[in-house]
Each structure stands twice: as C-alpha cells, then as structure tokens.
Amino acid sequence: MTSPNRLVFVDFPTVDIEASAKFYEEVFGWTVERRVPDLFCRIVPGGYFKNPDKTDSEIQNLHLGIHNVKNARPHPNPAGDDPRNVSEGGRSIRAWILVSDDDSQERILETAEKLGATVLWRDHYWHEFNGLNSSFIDPWGNQIMLWTKPEGFTEDYDTHTVEGAPRVPSHWTQE
C-alpha cells in the first residue's frame, strides 16, 4: 500500500432527521444541509484546519452526517436493510469536538441539555492528551466529547510531550 486508507466521513444515526439537524445547528452553530429529505443530512462545521502558525490551512474541517436508521443510505436496496433502530443503553459513536476559542463547553452543555441531551460529565482534565473535556449523549444515543486545550503550555506534536504547566481550573477532576 503506497498511501494510507483515510477517514472520509462519520455520520450519526437518528430516528428523526429534522430534529437532529436542528439540534446540531443550535448546539454547535453548524450548517446542516438537508441532502436527501427525511433520510440524510450533511453537517458542515465550516472553517479550516490550522497551520502551525495558527493561520488557516487549505484543508477544510471535516464534515459529518446524520442518517435515518429507518432507511440508511447508501444501500443497494431502495428500502434499506436492518437494523432500523438506534443503539439504546449501550456504547455508540463517540465524536470528539474541539470547542472554538469563541465558544465554551459550558454554553454547549447548557444548550444540549435544554434540547434533550444528557450530560455525562463536566470539567475533567486528561493528562494523556492534555485536554479539558466534558461529554453528553444526544437525544438519539450518540456520545459527544467536548475538548479544549488549557492555557500555560506548549505541546510537541512529534514527541507528544507537554512543556510548561497547563492551567487546569481547581474544581476540575483530573486523570
């Protein structure tokens, strides 16, 4: 193999396309394109990946999707195939969202909860990847991980080491 297989797309299962589209528009401010009515939407977060100097690169941020479990497209059969329900009570997709500098985990959690999400935890720091995180389950069972980087450090992405002392708020749990 001369080039790696690449992740192209991830989509969230739902039983209500329009409610899911409105949820993600309001919680994250994303554009949601209604591509195939009642079956599939494409989520377009906007923006670009950053260069090391923090300017925009030429690479757009990844897109996501929302698909209706009653007829997940694409599929050779026009009526789709089983299973036709969302995962309930078990592990499902976990999507990690890097929170914008002009937004906050708290605002996102409050909005998501108001729209029917269940907050799993708030205010946790994970040393392994130097990230402040919180998490919720959307109304359709998909887990969303919110991620921000603390201030007061530099990170060497080649060696995966953190230099300096990340400033973690005193009330946050840590591991």
Labels describing this entry:
2 helices, 13% helix, Signal recognition particle alu RNA binding heterodimer, srp9/1, five-stranded mixed β-sheet, 2,3-Dihydroxybiphenyl 1,2-Dioxygenase, domain 1, 13 strands, 175 residues, mainly beta
Description:
It is a single chain. The chain is built from two helices and 13 strands, in the order E-H-E-E-E-E-E-E-H-E-E-E-E-E-E. A hairpin with a 3-residue loop joins strand 2 (about 30-35) and strand 3 (about 40-45). The relative contact order is 0.16. The chain starts with 9 loop residues before the first strand and ends with a strand. The strands form four sheets. The protein has a five-stranded mixed beta sheet, covered by helices on one side. Strands 1-6-3-2 form a four-stranded mixed beta sheet, covered by helices on one side. A two-stranded antiparallel ribbon has the order 4-5. About 15% of the residues lie in helices and about 40% in strands. By secondary structure, it is mainly β. The chain folds into two domains: about 1-85, Signal recognition particle alu RNA binding heterodimer, srp9/1 (2-Layer Sandwich), CATH 3.30.720.120; about 90-175, 2,3-Dihydroxybiphenyl 1,2-Dioxygenase, domain 1 (Roll), CATH 3.10.180.10.
